[in-house]
Design brief:
globular, two-stranded antiparallel ribbon, ABC transporter involved in vitamin B12 uptake, BtuC, mainly alpha
Length: 423
């Protein structure tokens, strides 16, 4: 009798104790449970998002920090933030092409061509640097436009057209450089300062962190309001607030570390502005919706009266423009242009960055920010290998393994989406 009475009292006390927990604790527990349930649902549906690459990046940083205490030092992270810019800009352009389910193999040669045009005009012919810079970028735009129009009109696969472009633009670059082969650019000039100038005022880095966090919150809130107004699924204000808090923690920590060295690099600022601008172009404009629609299916896009030729030409033009910009930043980093500019593993790293970041090989899925995550992984591996004196061969093997894993995950995610009727 006593045991039954004790059990009855214990059972009746349980809910009372739960109800007596502080409301913030109960709300936090409910939020965590809801987030975990949503995450499980997305994983089953193949909607992995950026989670795999973020986990890979975290593992890479932890491993190299354990191997060398200088890996996460302010100096190394500052150098890393500048090193990602040149190849990262090229990778952002490749994202546009991958969204169509195609591949641009000419970006390395186009980047070298643009750098050569700038160096020859500015150094050898005395053209003002700003004008030579503009003409060099327009050279990349022209090359991409020619390839895009050829791809759209002939319907030859883009990788074949751009493979021909790889050889052609490389030959043009060699002809422009001439017998000298190497041109040193002014170390105090406009292009050289792209990767050597730092904002010493600490307010610049913290201001960028605050601006980025604020714009993220505003964009998420407006997107929620639009979706809610038309009855579409939308994130809760609590979820938006949590994501904003995580972003604020990351950005302000990065600003703190950058300020401990030389401040905010100009190259990083330009990179983030370009990536954000192109992200808005892709996700908030009619042109961007056409790119995603064309990546989802060419025939469906034609029946919806989309100008396939115009979109394909514009996408390759964007890729060529970004390749030219990336080439100029790479030339700025070493303050010279040579016959080897745009060669080596540059093309492979740029493509790998876009794929590792989460852009799909099958088209229709990816953002410009995925290229940022991907190039962070690749350059972090390169930086860690340099600090630990690991042979380049090992670096290539590890990068290849990460790329293979990313492609496999992309393929498995697509199968899962097809099984759930979402692909």
């Amino acid at each position: 009798m006593h045991d039954m009475a004790d059990n009855t009292r214990a059972e009746s006390a349980g809910p009372t104790d739960e109800a007596r927990r502080p409301r913030p604790v109960r709300a936090a527990a409910a939020a965590v449970q809801g987030w975990a349930a949503l995450l499980r649902l997305k994983l089953r549906a193949g909607e992995l998002g950026s989670l795999p690459v973020i986990l890979v990046l975290a593992v890479v940083w932890i491993v190299f920090q354990c191997l060398n205490d200088n890996f996460l030092s302010p100096r190394n992270l500052s150098n890393l933030s500048v090193d990602i810019v040149g190849t990262g800009l090229i990778a952002v352009g490749i994202v546009f092409v991958l969204l169509l389910g195609e591949l641009d193999l000419s970006v390395g040669s186009v980047s070298g061509l643009a750098a050569a045009v700038f160096a020859v005009l500015s150094v050898n012919n005395g053209v003002p640097e700003w004008l030579a810079f503009v003409l060099a970028v327009l050279t990349g735009t022209m090359a991409g436009t020619v390839q895009g129009f050829s791809f759209a009109k002939t319907r030859v696969p883009a990788f074949v057209v751009t493979l021909a472009g790889l050889l052609t633009w490389n030959g043009v670059m060699l002809a422009i450089l001439g017998s000298s082969g190497t041109v040193n650019i002014d170390e105090n000039g406009l292009v050289a300062k792209l990767t050597s100038y730092y904002f010493a005022d600490q307010g610049a880095a913290y201001g960028l962190a605050a601006l980025g966090t604020g714009m993220f919150f505003l964009s998420s809130y407006l997107d929620r309001r639009r979706r809610k107004a038309v009855g579409m699924p939308h994130r809760s204000l609590r979820g938006i607030g949590a994501r904003t808090a995580v972003l604020a923690l990351i950005t302000f920590a990065a600003a703190f570390l950058l300020n401990r060295f030389q401040g905010l690099p100009l190259a990083l600022l330009i990179f983030l502005v370009v990536v954000a601008g192109l992200d808005i172009l892709l996700r908030r404009t009619h042109y961007g919706r056409q790119v995603y629609a064309l990546g989802g299916g060419v025939e469906a896009a034609r029946r919806a009266s989309l100008s396939v030729t115009r979109v394909r030409t514009a996408v390759l033009a964007v890729s060529g423009t970004m390749a030219a910009l990336g080439g100029l930043f790479l030339a700025s980093r070493i303050t010279s242009v040579s016959q080897n500019s745009g060669s080596g593993v540059l093309l492979l790293n740029a493509i790998a960055a876009a794929l590792i970041g989460g852009t799909s090989l099958f088209g229709g899925r990816g953002t410009t920010w995925t290229a940022v995550l991907g190039i962070l992984v690749i350059q972090s591996i390169a930086s860690g290998m340099a600090l630990t004196d690991t042979p380049t061969a090992v670096q290539l093997v590890i990068t290849g393994g990460v790329l293979f894993a990313a492609v496999v995950i992309d393929s498995l995610a697509r199968r899962s989406q097809e099984a759930h009727g979402r692909a």
